[in-house]
Write a structure and sequence with these properties.
Distance between the termini of chain B: 34 Å
Number of strands of chain B: 14
Number of domains of chain B: 2
Structural class of chain B: alpha/beta
CATH class of the largest domain in chain B: Alpha Beta
Number of strands of chain A: 2
CATH topology of the largest domain in chain B: Rossmann fold
Helix content of chain B: 25-40%
Structural class of chain A: mainly alpha
Distance between the termini of chain A: 40 Å
Strand order of the largest sheet of chain A: 1-2
CATH architecture of the largest domain in chain B: 3-Layer(aba) Sandwich
Strand order of the largest sheet of chain B: 6-7-8-3-9-10
CATH superfamily of the largest domain in chain B: P-loop containing nucleotide triphosphate hydrolases
Number of helices of chain A: 13
Oligomer: heterodimer
Largest sheet of chain B: 6 strands, mixed
Chain lengths: 297, 339
């Protein structure tokens, strides 16, 4: 310690240096918002760069899903999944969506740690143009992360023989991931501000994560499921992200009216899947407003 | 001109627990105002309300005439806050943290870079600026936190227990820095439960106890108001009440003793106020010897801020802190400070 502190007389505050100007800085709400959001996002990426383990795990894990789960059903009769699909081909869409979902579900964790360590207070005493910059930064970060993961999964799936969707197909996948991730990120941030600490948050993430996976069409088609699970799966937003992507993988020709899912109550088109995802995103974003207002007021 | 900081009848409860009952004080521009009190007295809650981190239940808080409740963003621009627990992102370097802080206060990049350089130099942090803050010592963390609080050139700098856990040397560095900052016109509000710190630094002091301001003024005025020297006398380490009363009766008849109290918070030690005179101690010793009362310990001093506190509450700060520490709900406090 003694080596780090100079004797007192070496500290020389020249008031003119610190207070060179005291004119109010020019204020422009939007520019301020962009500046603070970018700075907060940059912080998250610096963290990622210096602690890349989450990203590495986030890429390795889905690849292991692909390999292991793919192998699990290796000997399933060809065509069992419908449309001459191999299980590997079937699984790709599920893994893409599940990975993005799990990543977004964890979006609140860094914010929770900021709450617990008091770093959030640093942000809250600052004259932020809008405290939604804190939310926006998390969302941008998680979306970027998810897209990197998605690209990796698509790449490896292609190598493993699942094929590659067309360019418009890839754009559609990006859009789907974006909608889902934004919706789930909002949900996660909602939990972050509603729960008392990271232990509780992790518990909630734990409880939500796998059940939502199994109650979707990620691992098995609807036709494998009993009636009640079909209904649950068709209420699960993940299904509406998985099925369009799966359709893209198996149908070079597609449009918004293509039927991607036979729900117990009727057929769902590509377009309506997107609409459902948009609604899900809007729903969660709206649902967390009162909470964020209260916590970040 | 409006006061730099004006707090009137501030009241804040957490659930049913009142943290601040009725706090009022005013800080003039360019002075260091010290908020002194034991842990759990309501200092931090007052500061949290002042810094827009907590919403007062009632009362007014103004910064240069701007209400922190009605115009929080305006107030935040004027305010620099150095929290009690240094919250640094340990993955960031000091410079990166300052750059982030600058962006949060919307300082243009070029300007920010210059200010960061100046502050790093002034606080002697240059050689650490590009190391991760996770590697910093306690003193370095404080200083980088101080730099962060000053980056936007706030009119009012609020420091909550800025030297807790620092060694003496680092403390003096921080003190010198704050004094020089004051001379450049910055108003400083500082909380502490270190008497010497407030005594050494503050132009004016507010003593706070159980959510109330129990004394306010310049340190010397507060001390002078108390009159004579203080003597703490212990007959035994733990004196029986009867014996202490006997000594009190005996000593209060001495002409040099203005006031004598038995303090049950100090194991029935006697708190005396005496005329400042060199012979007082000897007179007392002789008087006790004649009455065949032993002396375990005796000390004489000019009145300190602790005596101001003692006079107002009947307890010393240290005692208050010990009893506060045992009744504190740390978990609830942690929850309050989380957002």
């Amino acid at each position: 310690m003694s080596g780090t502190i100079n004797t007192s007389n070496s500290v020389n505050v020249r008031s003119s240096d610190i207070y060179r100007s005291r004119e109010p800085l020019e204020s422009n709400q939007l520019a301020d918002f962009i500046q603070e959001t970018l700075a907060l996002t940059k912080r998250l990426f610096i963290q990622l760069q210096r602690r890349p383990s989450t990203l590495i795990a986030g890429i390795v894990q889905p690849l292991m899903w692909l390999v292991l789960f793919g192998a699990l059903f290796q000997n399933a009769p060809q065509g069992m999944m419908g449309n001459d699909l191999s299980y590997g081909q079937f699984l790709g869409a599920g893994v893409i969506v599940f990975t993005a979902f799990a990543g977004a579900l964890n979006a609140g964790l860094p914010v929770m740690f900021d709450r617990e360590f008091g770093f959030l207070n640093r942000l809250l005493v600052a004259p932020l143009a809008s405290r939604y910059s804190i939310v926006a930064a998390s969302a941008i970060y998680i979306v970027a992360l998810s897209l990197i993961q998605t690209a990796a999964i698509i790449g490896v799936s292609a190598i493993m023989g699942a094929g590659l969707p067309s360019l418009t197909g890839l754009a559609a996948i990006t859009l789907i991931i974006l909608l889902l991730v934004l919706g789930v990120t909002a949900m996660s941030l909602g939990f972050t501000f509603a729960l008392p600490g990271h232990i509780e948050l992790i518990a909630v993430i734990f409880v939500i994560n796998l059940p939502l996976l199994f109650a979707s069409t990620a691992l098995a088609p609807l036709t494998f499921m009993p009636q009640w699970l079909q209904i649950v799966a068709c209420l699960n937003p993940l299904t509406y992200a998985i099925e369009p992507i799966r359709y893209l993988y198996t149908h070079p020709q597609w449009n918004l009216t293509s039927v991607v899912l036979q729900a117990p109550w009727g057929s769902i088109s590509f377009g309506s899947s997107l609409l459902i995802l948009v609604s899900f995103m809007l729903l969660t974003l709206t649902a967390i407003q009162p909470l964020l207002k209260r916590r970040l007021a | 001109m409006a006061a730099a900081v004006l707090i009137q009848n501030l009241c804040k409860s957490y659930g049913t627990v009142p943290a601040v009952k009725d706090v009022s004080f005013q800080v003039n521009q360019g002075e260091i105002f010290g908020l002194l009190g034991p842990n759990g007295a309501g200092k931090t809650t007052t500061i949290r309300c002042l810094c827009t981190l907590a919403k007062p239940d009632s009362g007014t808080i103004e910064l240069g005439g701007v209400s922190v409740v009605d115009q929080p963003r305006e107030a935040r621009k004027r305010l620099g806050y150095v929290a009690q627990e240094v919250a640094l992102d340990k993955i960031l370097t000091g410079r990166e943290l300052l750059e982030l802080q600058a962006a949060l206060y919307h300082i243009p990049k070029v300007e920010a870079r210059q200010r960061i350089e100046v502050l790093l130099e002034v606080l002697d942090l240059q050689s650490y600026a590009d190391k991760k803050t996770g590697t910093y010592s306690g003193g370095l963390k404080r200083r980088i936190d101080l730099a962060a609080g000053l980056l936007h050139q706030p009119e009012v700098l609020v420091l909550d227990e800025p030297t807790v856990g620092l060694d003496i040397e680092s403390r003096v560095v921080v003190w010198d820095f704050l004094r020089q900052l004051r001379s450049s016109g910055t108003t400083i509000v500082i909380t502490s439960h270190y008497l010497e710190e407030i005594d050494a630094l503050a132009d004016r002091v507010g003593i706070i106890d159980r959510g109330l301001v129990i004394a306010e003024g310049t340190p010397s005025a507060l001390k002078n108001r108390l009159g004579g020297d203080r003597i703490t006398l212990r007959i035994r380490e733990f004196t029986p009440v009867a014996e202490a009363e006997r000594a009190r009766h005996l000593l209060s008849q001495l002409s040099c003793v203005q006031e004598a109290k038995v303090n049950d918070n100090q194991a029935n030690a006697l708190n005396l106020v005496v005329t400042p005179d060199r012979d007082v101690l000897m007179t007392i010793q002789q008087s006790l010897q004649t009455a065949e009362l032993p002396i375990f310990g005796i000390s004489q001093s000019r009145p300190s801020l602790d005596d101001v506190y003692l006079a107002a509450t009947g307890k010393t700060l240290l005692d208050a802190e010990l009893s506060a520490a045992s009744s504190r709900d740390l978990k609830a406090e942690k929850k309050q400070s989380m957002r």
